[in-house]
Amino acid sequence: MYIYLPIAEVSMNIFAIVGLGGIVGFLSGLFGVGGGFLMTPLLIFLGIPAAVAVSTEANQIVASSVSGVVAHWRKRNVDFMMGFILLVGGIIGSSFGVWLFAFLKTIGQIELVIRLAYVVFLGLIGFFMAWESTKAILKSRTPGASRGKLHQHNWLHGLPFKIRFRRSKLYISALLPLFLGAFVGVLSAIMGVGGGFIIVPAMIYVLGMPTAVVVGTSLFQIIFVTANITFLQSITTQTVDIILAGLLMLGGVIGAQFGSNASSLLRGEQLRGLLALLVLAVCIKLFMDLTLAPTDIFSLEIVR
Amino acid sequence: MIKYYIIFLVIFFPNFGFSKSIVADLSSDSISINTGFNGAELLLFGSFDGLEGDNLVISVEGPKADTIIYKKEYVSGIWINRENVTFKNVPSFYYTVHSNTNMDLENLALLKREGIGSENLELKSIKELHSENLNVWRNSLERRMRKRGMWVLKKGRGPESIEIKNNKLFRAPVIIPATVLPGEYKVSIFLLRNGKILSKENTKISIQKTGLEAKIYNFAHENSMMYGVFAVLLALCAGYIAAFSFRKI
Predict the structure, then answer these.
(1) What average pLDDT score do residues A118-125 get?
(2) Which end of chain B is more exposed for a tag (fewer CB within 10 A), N or C?
(3) A42 in helix, strand or coil?
């Protein structure tokens, strides 16, 4: 059964879209990640225009982050002060990102920048996770290993405008989450991701937040950043396809439930190892597209 | 159905088959792009007064749009778009059928002169280009359009291209892909003999977005701020409902 997507202006099999949403939802439930970094490249591989894939995925992430944050909210695992500063940065960054996106589109380099951003960040994150989970798996086999300090103090803790973040038990400069939010906001707008795969490790290793509040706080701020991207893309490029987004949400919600149930079957470090392999696979695919000789060095774009 | 229509025409208009000019009709002159749209197939049929060896040429030309061609270059290990050329008013769809596989040179010259068929289109680039260079870009435009299935050239007779009966009746399927732009599609049929157009007939197909597709598209483009708010609210509600409906699982 085919459905014609009104904004993407392509006809696609409805079960393929819901199924894709389901599979990515399953993986995000299993690994506890947003899944945007998988969904956006897959939509582009399936023939959705890159601009529509990025904007529509931002819209879907709004829904998946809302459904994810509710559980964390109930367990009081959201640091609102931290989330607020992150989202102020995020809104500034993502607004700039949407502008940058439109600019890169007019000079014909948006596909290149999207792919490069994916290769660099997926490569870094994938490598880091693979290394970290291998270490954890090896460590779990050697009993008696000691645990380090919660977090180290370095020059980042000497920055001005210090604020007390009660829920995170931190006293750090507000500039840190502000810049982190802005940086991830730019990437969110360009890559069509929530940015959880960057912001979560950054919150743990750079800000030194306790792991319990990290996911809830990151989801909380992602809602606002992706809502901002959805809104701005609707106004500037008209590339948000609500039919495509709705079908992906449907698949994603169901898949995520199965995924989170399945996650109890695997150990944490094994899960992270598998996720690392997945991330590296997407990274390698995109890297090869950039470096291997294309079948035709000419490509075409119809302007309307 | 169409067979009966032709029989009807032949019975009630006895000179229908013998008239000098082409008489043609489409099985439908409008296509709506609605939720279930996945391309369409129309039938172009009619009669003409021909001799053995005559050429029938059909062309279907879609709405025009500016088209950019990018050329990739290998720069420090990766392939990136370096140069680009924009062609003005390029038909987004061009379907051509030649009834004969090998057309005479004089007929081919005629098509070229008249600009019939995608290979004979005169395309203008926005910036001035050296003619040799222009040809490279123009050829790659044509190659990419064919690859996308938006420019199609079919030669020879057959159920996929054109069927001709007794040099009087013809029927030809017109296949519209799912990626077409909405707009007016000009359909022309030419009867060629010895480098001259003996007769020609024009008709048109109107392709429009309808129903929900049209509503959403117009909403997004005409009231984009409200559309953005709506998209965000939709996602907020969907996420909230999802969180509560799976609460007890």
Answers:
(1) 89
(2) N
(3) helix
Q: A61: exposed, middle or buried (C-beta count within 10 Å: 0-12, 13-18, 19+)?
A: buried
With CB atoms and an 8 Å threshold, state whether A71 touches B243. Answer: yes
CB neighbourhood size of B124 (10 A): 12
- Nearest CB to A10 within list B178, B214, B228: B178
Look up the pTM and report it.
0.83
- Domain boundaries B2-209, corresponding CATH code: 2.60.40.1930
Task: Please list every residue in chain B whose beta carbon sits closer than 8 Å to the beta carbon of residue A257.
Answer: 246, 249
Residue A298 lies in a domain: no
Domains of chain B: which residue ranges?
A: 2-209, 210-249
Residues 60-79 of A with CB under 8 A from B: 60, 62-68, 70-71
Residue A296 lies in a domain: no
Closest partner residue to A303 (CB to CB) among B36, B68, B140 is: B68
Which strand ranges, in their side-by-side order, compose the sheet holding B30-33? B30-33, B196-209, B183-193, B55-61, B94-98, B151-155
Phi, psi of B225 (to 5 degrees): -70, -45
Q: Is residue B45 within 8 Å of residue B171, measured between CB atoms?
A: yes
Considering the domain boundaries, does residue A255 fall inside one? yes
Stretch A232-242: mean pLDDT:
93
pLDDT the model gives residue B17 = 43
Residue type, B156: G
In this complex, do B67 and A67 lie within 8 Å of one another by their Cβ atoms? no
Span B236-249, mean pLDDT? 80
Question: A298: nearest CA in chain B?
Answer: B71
CB contact under 8 A, A242 and B230: yes
pLDDT of residue B226: 96
**A302 contacts B79? CB cut-off 8 A:** no
Contact between chains at A66 and B148 (C-beta distance less than 8 A): no
Which of A187, A185, A197 is closest to A227 using CA atoms? A185
Taking residue A109's Cβ as centre, other Cβ atoms within 10 Å add up to: 15
Cβ-defined contact of B231 to A298 (cutoff 8 Å):
no
| Nearest chain B residue (CA) to A56 | B231
Whether A260 has its CB under 8 Å from any CB of chain B: the answer is: no
Pairing of strands B94-98, B151-155: parallel
Percent of chain B whose predicted confidence (pLDDT) is above 90: 56
For residues B134-169, one letter each, b for 16 or more C-beta atoms within 10 angstroms of the residue's C-beta and e for the rest, the string is beebbebbbebbeeeebbbbbeebeeebbebeebbb
Is A297 a domain residue? Answer: no
- Domain hosting residue A66, numbered range: 2-141+150-291
Residue type, B201: E
Q: What is the pLDDT of residues B36-67, one digit of tens each?
A: 898 999 999 999 988 888 899 999 999 999 99
Restricting to A residues 114-133, those with a Cβ less than 8 Å away from any Cβ of B are 116
